């Protein structure tokens, strides 16, 4: 893509359903106050599980956004995605009609899709036979349905797809939407991620992989990114959605602009199915390429919303990657992991973390990393521990890394 063809892309709306708030306002207030959304699992009997804690969405009623019949035909991950998308459209005051529908797309990523439906229907199959399986099982289960149903519910007829890159999916979706608008293939895209994987089988699987925290007796302190006592991530659920628009289109309709997305890069470690490559070389390359894509120098970066999973391998590796890219500037940049409050939404994490990043820019306020009490000597950067910080945020990066070696970095900046 030649430079003269690159369109500027801005963020005009946000939607968020999270363990610390079911609207963007509640979510942001939860972030800056250091609210903890992690507790004992209530969605199923986890008494026999090695891990019995998670960041669950509370008091969510999909019927606030759709009728009951429609809600019953969706897995919870799609309910989250469609609902957050409707929030974001309302926030952007973007009305989809016959004039613009073909120019508005939807890209929503998910790591595992409708795993709850799959588990439930497997039980039906085993105990009641194949003829008793629901005719809605497949369209409720497949990961692309959050994007498809969002289009059905909003009327968006432009480019539509689903990214499935594990914990990088939400950020990949936002980056792909950015590229589509940059290239002139859409005027606006509803994009982000959603996940609802707090289920018996999913929790058991991640626990068996030794990826989760087993701090069952102290759930509020279980997720502790960059802390020497971290022992694994805590699962979360929910959805984060952005409305991205061609700047000219946004201005033509008088849209409020939160900020601008200017950089996106994806790389692969090509190393291991779950572990990052030592030294964070793949993550560093994603950050470096995203900054280059946005024409941003290391000295311009104000804030990084880290992947920060609270696993022994990720946090030290991400720290090393940041140092490799930013060099001396790494010690001057504010960094935080909002997963410390929400848990890890897997494919939905990039969505809610992009919302956090753009709101940090819009409000000049940096969310904290809670539970950071005993910093790991290998993690020696400024992680904005335990309390939010008022600071001008001109440029911010959001990192997402997924099983399989997927690395994604997004770069946002103030709109001028």
Concise structural overview:
The chain has helices at 24-33, 68-72, 76-92, 115-128, 137-141, 145-154, 169-182, 200-208, 247-252, 281-293, 312-326, 339-342, 349-363; strands spanning 9-17, 39-40, 53-54, 104-109, 160-161, 188-195, 238-246, 259-268, 303-305, 334-336, 365-366, 389-390, 395-402, 406-413. With 416 residues, it is of the alpha/beta class.
Give a written overview of the molecule.
- The protein is of the alpha/beta class.
- Helices cover 33% and strands 18% of the residues.
- It has a single domain (9-405), classed as Thiolase/Chalcone synthase (Peroxisomal Thiolase, Chain A, domain 1), CATH 3.40.47.10.
- It contains 13 helices and 14 strands.
- The strands form three sheets. It has a ten-stranded mixed beta sheet with strand order 5-4-6-7-1-8-14-13-9-10, with helices on both faces.
- A hairpin with a 3-residue loop joins strand 13 (395-402) and strand 14 (406-413).
- Helix 3 crosses helix 6, helix 7 packs across helix 13 and helix 10 (281-293) crosses helix 11 (312-326).
- The protein is globular and about 65 Å long.
- The two termini are 23 Å apart.
- The mean pLDDT is 97.
Number of strands: 14
CATH level-4 homologous superfamily: Thiolase/Chalcone synthase
Amino- and carboxy-terminal Cα gap: 23 Å
CATH architecture classification: 3-Layer(aba) Sandwich
Please state how the strands of the largest beta sheet are arranged side by side. Answer: 5-4-6-7-1-8-14-13-9-10
Shape: globular
For this structure, what is the CATH class? Answer: Alpha Beta
- How many domain units? 1
State the share of residues found in helices, binned by percent.
25-40%
Radius of gyration from CA coordinates: 20 Å
What percentage of amino acids are in beta strands? Answer: 15-25%
**Order of H and E elements:** EHEEHHEHHHEHEHEHEHEHEHHEEEE
Name the average pLDDT: 97
Q: SS-based structural class?
A: alpha/beta
Q: Unreliable runs, pLDDT <50, ≥5 residues? A: none
Largest sheet composition: 10 strands, mixed
According to CATH, what is the topology? Peroxisomal Thiolase, Chain A, domain 1
The count of helical stretches stands at 13
């Amino acid at each position: 893509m030649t430079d003269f063809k690159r369109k500027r892309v801005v963020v005009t709306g946000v939607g968020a359903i999270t363990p610390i708030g079911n609207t963007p306002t509640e979510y942001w207030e939860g972030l800056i106050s250091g609210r903890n959304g992690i507790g004992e699992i209530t969605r199923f009997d986890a008494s026999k599980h090695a891990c019995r804690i998670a960041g669950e969405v509370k008091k969510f009623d999909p019927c606030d956004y759709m009728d009951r019949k429609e809600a019953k035909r969706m897995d919870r991950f799609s309910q989250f995605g469609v609902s957050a998308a409707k929030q974001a459209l309302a926030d952007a005051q973007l009305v989809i009609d016959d004039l613009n529908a073909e120019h508005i797309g939807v890209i929503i990523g998910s790591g595992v899709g409708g795993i709850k439906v799959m588990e439930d229907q497997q039980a039906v199959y085993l105990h009641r036979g194949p003829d008793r399986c629901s005719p809605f099982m497949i369209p409720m289960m497949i990961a692309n349905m959050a994007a498809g149903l969002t289009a059905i519910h909003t009327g968006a007829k432009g480019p539509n797809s689903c990214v499935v890159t594990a914990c990088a999916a939400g950020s990949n979706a936002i980056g792909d939407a950015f590229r589509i608008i940059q290239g002139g293939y859409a005027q606006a895209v509803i994009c982000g991620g959603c996940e609802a994987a707090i289920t018996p089988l999913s929790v058991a699987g991640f626990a068996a992989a030794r990826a989760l925290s087993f701090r069952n007796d102290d759930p509020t302190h279980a997720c502790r990114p960059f802390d020497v006592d971290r022992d694994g991530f805590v699962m979360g659920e929910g959805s984060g959605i952005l409305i991205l628009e061609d700047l000219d289109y946004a201005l033509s309709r008088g849209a409020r602009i939160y900020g601008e997305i200017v950089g996106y890069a994806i790389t692969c470690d090509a190393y291991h199915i779950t572990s990052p490559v030592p030294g964070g070389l793949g993550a560093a390359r994603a950050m470096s390429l995203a900054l280059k894509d946005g024409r941003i120098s290391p000295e311009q970066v104000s804030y990084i919303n880290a992947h920060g999973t609270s696993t022994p391998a990720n946090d030290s590796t991400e720290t090393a990657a940041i140092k490799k890219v930013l060099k001396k500037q790494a010690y001057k940049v504010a960094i935080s992991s909002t997963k410390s409050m929400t848990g890890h939404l897997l494919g939905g994490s990039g969505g809610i973390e992009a919302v956090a990043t753009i709101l940090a820019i819009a409000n000049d306020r940096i969310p904290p990393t809670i539970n950071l009490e005993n910093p790991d000597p290998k993690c020696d950067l400024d992680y904005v521990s335990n309390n939010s910080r008022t600071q001008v945020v001109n440029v911010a990066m959001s990192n997402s890394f997924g099983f399989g070696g997927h690395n994604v970095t997004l770069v946002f900046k103030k709109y001028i």
